[in-house]
Amino acid sequence: MNNNEDTLSVVSSSYPRSLKSGLNGSPTMASGRYPTSDAASFSTSMGRFDTCILGRQIVEPQKRHTLYKIEVDGGFKKWVIYRRYRDFILLNKKEGERQERERLRQEWVEMQEKIKKEDIEITYSYWDGSGHRRKLIMKKGNSIQQFLQKCLEQLRKDFTELKPVTTEQVMYVKEDLIIPQHYTFYDFIVNKARGKSGPLFNFDVHEDIRLTNDATIEKDESHAGKVCLRTWYERNKHIFPASRWEPYDPEKKWSKYTISEKK
């Protein structure tokens, strides 16, 4: 089979590649229930293809069967392939399955987009050595950077040192993990992510009681995330609680929630 035929056979609208092509001889037209002439068009990542059944040919290598001669027109080139009637049936079945998968995928995407637009209340604490608790309403699909921008807007009226500060100069720490600003709240919610000292997917706050329970038994105790200046962190990262903070790594799994310095 030539390269064009291989390319055609891997797309959902194609015919199976299991059958041999390039048979010699002229097609013989015949009457009966089998298709003798038909045309179809479909699109692939390579472009649009037009197909036309030119005829059929009886073949008897071991068991008598009919091959249909099909012309494929890719616009830039035409070529001929041969397929059995059962391959049309298989193609129709595969196309139906593909359409159903696409429908389910689209439903899932729409559901996730709806979740991302839902409101979520975030309790956080501006941390400068002591906590100054605040609340914000965000969308679940908002990024940490968008959240920090809202935090700065809210805090500047009470903390003058934050007036010239940008989001690049502050950091968000949740459950003793420094969260990169490109993540969204949705990312942690949908993945049920865990931190060192509590769940990353809860943003409402209980009293600051950190339990050392087995994380396989889900607990909803969470702690106010901390918003602090990077300069403050660099000066104090050898002192608790900053000494426990570390960058968030999605590949690292926390089997237990802890609050002590012991590993």
From TrEMBL:
Keyword Nucleotide-binding set for record: no
Any one GO BP annotation for this protein: chromatin organization
Keyword list, A-Z: Coiled coil
Protein's UniProt keywords contain Coiled coil: yes
Coiled-coil intervals: 94-121
Limits of the FAM50A/XAP5 C-terminal domain: 118-258
Domain of life, source organism: Eukaryota
Region (Disordered): 1-38
InterPro entries: FAM50A/XAP5_C, PX_dom_sf, XAP5
One GO location term (cellular component): nucleus
Gene3D superfamilies: Phox-like domain (3.30.1520.10)
Bias type Polar residues, positions: 1-29
SUPFAM superfamilies: PX domain
GO terms assigned for molecular function: phosphatidylinositol binding
Protein name: FAM50A-like
Cross-referenced Pfam families: XAP5
